[in-house]
Amino acid sequence: MKVVCPTCNTRYDIPGDKIVQGRTLAVTCKNCGGQIVTETEEFQFMTEKDGFKGYAGFRKRFSAAIIDGSILMVAGFIIGGFAGFLYGYSTGTREGSGALGNIVGIILGWLYFALMESSSKQGTLGKMAL
Predict the structure, then answer these.
(1) pLDDT of residue 42
(2) Separation of alpha carbons 100 and 76, rounded Å
(3) Radius of gyration in angstroms for the set of CA atoms belonging to the chain, rounded to a whole number
(4) Is 68 buried (19+), middle (13-18) or exposed (0-12) by CB count in 10 A?
(5) Of 36, 45, 61, 68, which residue is the least packed, with the fewest Cβ within 10 Å?
(6) How many other C-beta atoms can be found within 10 angstroms of the C-beta atom of residue 84?
């Protein structure tokens, strides 16, 4: 069976008798040193035809940025509005609410990108949509 390492895209030819259905299998890539462990019923390597197909072009990246920006804008409006309301209610003034909104927006954007891109999906909602 021809397989491709999902980390570095190195191609391997693994004999079919080495793959036993229903057993845990651990394989170390000789190129990148990454270990692939499967505990499912099937051995899960990417096949050669499903390997790396190239990077996304400008249109896909721009569209993903528009989707992510829209999501952050709506979430920022809701969360920032709530934070501004609480700030105004507790202090009795609107002074400083703009700075608070900026801080909340920076933290929200940072958390969105950091948590989404470090998840198992490895991408934001806009990137996954495209």
Answers:
(1) 47
(2) 12
(3) 23
(4) buried
(5) 61
(6) 17
What is d(CA 87, CA 91) in angstroms, rounded to the nearest whole number?
A: 6
Number of Cβ atoms within 10 Å of the Cβ of 108 = 16
DSSP letters spanning 36-102: EEE-SSS--PEEGGGS------HHHHHHHHHHHHHHHHHHHHHHHHHHHHHHHHHHSS-TTHHHHHH
3-state class (DSSP) for residue 127: helix
CA distance 26 to 36: 6
pLDDT at 47: 56
What's the pLDDT tens digit per position in 98-113?
888 888 888 999 999 9
Please say if the pLDDT value at position 115 is more than 90: yes
Helix, strand, coil fractions of the chain, as percent rounded to 5: 50, 10, 35
Are the C-beta atoms of residues 11 and 4 closer than 8 Å to each other? yes
pLDDT 10s digits, 47-94: 556 666 678 889 999 999 999 999 999 998 888 888 888 888 888 887
